[in-house]
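User: We ran a pulldown and think these components assemble together. Before we commit to crystallization trials, I'd like a predicted model of the whole complex to look at. Sequences follow.
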Amino acid sequence: MKDSEILTRISKGDEKALDYLYKKYYRMMTRIVLSNNGTEDEAKDIYQEALLAFWQKAISGKLVLTSKISTFIYSICLNLWRKELDRKGRFSDEEMKDEEIHPEHDKNEKVRIINECINALGDTCRKILTYYYFDGMSMADIAEKLDFANTDTAKTKKYKCKKKLDSMVKSQYSASDFLD
Amino acid sequence: MESNFNKENLIDDLVSGRISGEEADKALQQIQGDPALGSDFEFQQDLVNQLQTVRKAELKMRLDALPIEPILVGGLTATGLLKLGGAAITATLLGVSGYLLLSDQNEDLRNSIDLIPSKVETIDLGSTTVAQGPDKIQKFDLKGIQSLPLTVSTEVEPMLADETIEAELLAPEVVPPSVTELFEEETIKSPELDTNPDVITNTTEDATEIENVRDEKYPFHYKYHSNKLYLYGDFKGIPYDILEVHGKSGRVTYLSYEGEFYQLKNPIKGVKPLIPIGDKDLIKELEILKEEKAF
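Assistant: Here's a predicted model for the assembly, 475 residues in total across the polymer chains.
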């Protein structure tokens, strides 16, 4: 498959193109981490993060590719692994443990509630909202991917699903707790 | 006055990253100047962050399930090794047949066969005599070789000669390894090449050490540290299950609690929220596994 074909397929949200890229470059990309003191799991994690960053860029139409896809993903992997090494270097094991066990932020109860609500939304709503907010897909592409009659149907559904999520979350958390 | 609908759209565009640069700065200023709008913006941002987290986890799970060819020897993949093995077998066969045809050194191994008629036809072309061998392909049987029928081309280039040439090509008696034996030696067994890779199997090897941590800041979370699993939250005395399974891409751990399944990624950076799995097929498989484990 040529790079241009991969990009076209990704721009339509074709996850099989993502699978293809993942398998094709797995060894090449994970080697960056493996040959720089990383474990196989860390290598996989970095590669997945890089590939998903590429996926988001490509799908949203914001990507102007001036090199091969592999070069682009390679550079993301490299940057991510450098950041991870920096992070590791900054904290000793004990400091990391402390930081993790005694966190500074307190958004986690919200997070739990929101997760529960997203899960309770139903498949279609979850797909519409995640395709829109994570993948950055257009309403036209969402309509095509989910077999809706047209873009307007997708827009209406997205609006309703979002409202449903808002009210579900708010009903579980009082406004004074949540919005301050 | 701007309508609520427009405000909603403004916030939505901002949190979804659909506006940027100057436009985004302007929107942010507007939000900062209006406390109610600011609160709503924060709320929407939390929702979108979580939607993004859920989708990312979903895509990562999809990628995790893809079979990746393992590296076996010196950076070669299973396919690479199979190709190499195939090439080696072909080279061996070619070598053996070449040896059979060309070797005339070892007297003991000779097995006389007629490749070229003992009497070669001579054609008189005036001043030059051309000796011509048979130009048809001849088949011959080699003693002891049953499984490898060989086809030998004995086309002879026309040559100039003053006298008749008598040729006798002898083949040594060689018992080559059977084709089955050759393939048995070269067979490569790869851990990824399951006969049924779709089946998830439960494993009890290397059971994970688990510690329950109560921290109000982490109501339902987990983390791995030094290969130990920390489960945060109040599980209210309700038992949970840890399923360690071998999927297509290695060992994956799941938490089963109150009818939901959660993937536990290891390694993972810091403390992460437990997000229920949405993939219905995976849930079905995990439910079956859980039932099997119970018995």
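The CA atoms of residues 21 and 160 of chain A lie 34 Å apart. That may be worth checking against your pulldown data before setting up trials.

User: Thanks, that helps.
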